[in-house]
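Much of the work behind modern protein science is quiet bookkeeping, done one molecule at a time. The protein below has been through that process, and both of its lines are reproduced in full.
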Amino acid sequence: MSLMHRKLTGPVLAVVAIIYATTLLTSCASYKKSIYFQDIPDSLQAPVTIPVAAYEPPKIKPNDILSISVQTIEDKDIAKASAPTASSAQGNGAAVTGYKVDENGDVDVPMVGTVHLAGMTTSEAKEAVRAKAKHNFVDPVVNVTFANHFIDVIGEVSRTGRIPLPDEKVSIIDAISMAGDLGIQGKRYNVLLMRDEGDKKVCTRFNLNSSKLFQSPYYYVKSGDIIYVEPNKAKSRNGETDYSRDRYLGYIASFVSVGLALYNILYTQSRVK
């Protein structure tokens, strides 16, 4: 019996070491893949400057829905006092109201008239509406924003679905943040963005582990973009998160290690006696 114990001690310790090393390496690999912007040093003596892609504001086009307000001394809110000329649903149950740009690129603004806005930014459209409103009102204050701009975020994020854009200048990081961030099972190094450009669907991928994404010409999202976060292999294969799998493997390895260590201690003590 003692001979058998002696023969088992070496292999047992080898098995424990292999299990421990495998668990440790798996956990380290999963941890590293979950870190954003890994190329930025952990400790900085001075701030790091990273170039960011140039931002190009969106242009108004036919079928856009605009929120337009015209305020004057005579009437606090002329345009909004009238019923909106367009209404649509964003796909998440929220109704969107505003003034629709017709196929000719024109918008009918109550008590102001028809204004051609297609091809303009919202800043340029604001000045165009203001110039028209000045014919009838003193010092009108105008505001023009997009009412129907949205993106779709699907895959391994906390909140999937259609997200209205609260601002024109929204980056891929902003979009992921609005979706509640990626789960631990989402591939941060392989985030897919799909965009309609004319009659083509343009696809590009982002690596959130690298700060180089700031320089991508697709860093700022556009209305209608689809962002897809791919699940890792463990999620696809087992239907469970990589985090849960690693945790359970860690528990098993710990129990086996403790059990075998106790066995080895008791065996050693029995030999001494």
